[in-house]
Every structure is written in C-alpha cells, then in structure tokens.
Amino acid sequence: MAQQQIAKDDRSIGDLFSELAGETTTLVRQEIALAQTELTQKAVKTGKNVGFLVVGGAIAYAALLAILAAVIIGLGSVIPMWLSALIVGVAVGIIAAIMIFSSLNKLKNADLAPRQTIETLKEDAQWLKKQV
Fold it and tell me: What pLDDT, in 10s, does the model give residues 9-54?
C-alpha cells in the first residue's frame, strides 16, 4: 500500500491531468446514462397514467351518455324536451370545463425533471473542484 502511494506521488502533473480527464469523461458518460434512465422511467410512468386516463375517460363517456339520456327524458316529462336537453347540456359543459382545467393544471405542474441526476451532477462538480 505504501509503495502504491509513493508511486502515485511520483506521477507527473501531465499524468495527473490525464487521469483526471479520463475520470471526468467516465463520470460524464455515467451521468448521461443516469439521466437517460431516469427520464425513460418517468416517461413510461407518465405514459401509463395517460393511457389509463384515456381508457377510463372513454368508459365514463359511455356511462355518462346513458345517464344524460335518462335525465333528459325524466326532465322532459315535466318541461319541454328541448329545454330539458339544454339544461342538462349546460350543466355537463360546466362540469367538463372544471375537470379539464383541473387536469391541465396537474399536468403542467408534473415534475418530469431528472432530480437524481441533477443532485449527482452537483456532487460531481464539487468532486471535480476538489480534484483540480
């Protein structure tokens, strides 16, 4: 162990900078691989959630149409059918707008940044400063 330390201490500055450049290159490659992996995982998770949202929305749409038809027919026995359809249509439109804007806000605020990679890049920058 002592001979290895002496051997390391006998290296020239050129050798040290060469080793540092090699280690830095390896570090950058590893960080890029980490970022790709992290972004892929987040994209897959987001894609699955969007898929479930679409399928659930289609099923809910079919159910909603049946329920709305029943409500329009029910109201149509009390008020004119056109007025019944108009009232139900406006109510459903308001509910839809609220749901759409709420979902859009959640998608806009989704955190897709590679947080782990950012943290390790900060650590790597500190390590590189110490090495230089």
Answer: 677 888 888 888 888 888 888 888 888 888 888 888 888 889 999 9
**Residue 84 near residue 76, CB atoms below 8 Å:** yes
Rounded Cα distance, 68 and 92, in Å: 9
pLDDT, tens digit, 9 for 90 and up, residues 77-98: 999 999 999 999 999 899 999 9
The structure's pTM equals: 0.41
Q: What are the C-alpha distances in Å from 20 to residues 5, 9, 13, 17, 128?
A: 17, 14, 10, 5, 8
For residue 7, give both structure tokens: 């051997």
Q: Long-range contacts made by residues 72-81, C-beta under 8 angstroms, separation at least 24?
A: none
**Burial classification of residue 121, based on how many CB atoms lie within 10 Å of its CB (0-12 exposed, 13-18 middle, 19 or more buried):** middle
Domain segments of the chain: what residues? Answer: 51-117
The Cα 97–Cα 74 span in angstroms is 25
Q: 35-51 burial, b if ≥16 CB within 10 A, otherwise e?
A: beebeeebeeeeeeeee
